[in-house]
Amino acid sequence: MSSRILIVEDEVVVAMYIETLLVTFGYEVAGIVTNGKDAIDAVKNNGIALILMDINIEGDIDGIETVKRIKEFSDVPVIYVSAYIDKETIDRAAETKPASYLSKPFKNKDLKDIIDSILR
Asked: 3-state SS string over 51-112?
């Protein structure tokens, strides 16, 4: 299985930090996008193995709605990486059957362990 990971994150510093971690872990970053439309396009066109999805992103749809739309045509696993850990948000996210949910701030080892368990 390919190890191409898509980062969906609208905070540039956070996205660059996650990208650096993924490269250190030995994974290929397929791209960084900041909104749902670009995330959907990337999954359609780039052979993505995993999505790291923030919930609060730019654009008309949030990360959860983006995942719902992606699930209509792809079974790519999704890890939500978000500071939103309230019950309502977690319940909405759970409806999309994510591979995992990681709250910000996260420990680097936790991110690596979750990704490894999904992709290796």
From this structure: EEECCCCECCCCHHHHHHHHHCCCCCCEEEEECCCCHHHHHHHHCCCCCEEEECCCCHHHHH
Residues 6+ apart with CB under 8 A from 77: 49, 50, 51, 98, 99, 118
Instruction: Look up the pTM and report it.
Output: 0.95
Cis peptide before 77 (omega within 30 of 0): no
Q: Would you state the structure tokens that stand for residue 47, as one six-digit string?
A: 């052979």
CATH code for the part of the protein at 4-108: 3.40.50.2300
What pLDDT is recorded for position 1?
41
- The mean pLDDT value for 36-63 works out to 96
Q: Where are the domains of the chain?
A: 4-108
